[in-house]
Amino acid sequence: MKVIIIDDEPLARSIVKEYLQSHSEIEVVAECNDGFEGMKAIQQHDPGLIFLDIQMPKINGFEMLELIENPPAVIFTTAFDEFAIKAFELNATDYLLKPFSKERFDKAIQKYLHHAAAPQSQKLLETAAQSPAQQNRIVVKDGSKIKIIPINQIHYLEAADDYVKLVTADGAFLKKRTMNFFEQSLGVYQFVRIHRSYIVNTHLITRIDAYEKDNHLVLLTTGAKLPASKTGYVKLKEVLGI
After folding, report:
1. Which of the four pLDDT bands, split at 50, 70 and 90, describes residue 117?
2. Would you list the domain boundaries of the chain?
3. Does the structural domain 135-240 have CATH classification 3.30.450.20?
4. What is the pTM of this model?
5. What is each CA distance from 69 to 110, 113, 191, 225, in whole angstroms?
């Protein structure tokens, strides 16, 4: 069974390797220092299981998982916050809270072996993404590159089939999420869903014009014009206080 260890702490990686020595059915095929290396190794080796830290440089463990089409099973090795631990308990294969013992490690391995056929739940990422630590930026694939987009650089979001298009000054980028997800998670930044297909950054609104019956057009400082439905206009007025 192929396994990859992804953790920016060499000591943490060596502990996992040491604990795995008593599991002869498991082979460590790669060790990775960050999420970028982890992505490449997963694509190259197609492991059945990864040991994954959360807090790493560049992109964190959750963001790395979001960028993988079919992520392998995951056992988290982390000192992450209480909110994320709740997400792990609900949805993850298992998590090991650092520092962890050999006995606890072996229990995680046994749990994985008994549930190896169970797919990694998307609910884990959706739950973890609600954490304040996850909400100030969005990580997307841009061809073969990874782009980190700060929330305040997004002009608006547009529904695009199974994806959501994030429109910024640098162009548009696709993220495999739902409009409902972004409506919930971006509300704190004064993003408002003005239409079933559009969520707007209210800080960029320069004018709202009446347009066809109960609909309106929202004009942004960038020159973009977005439709606002009747219910979307009501939400917008509440947020803007008009």
Report:
1. very low
2. 2-128, 135-240
3. no
4. 0.75
5. 26, 22, 27, 33
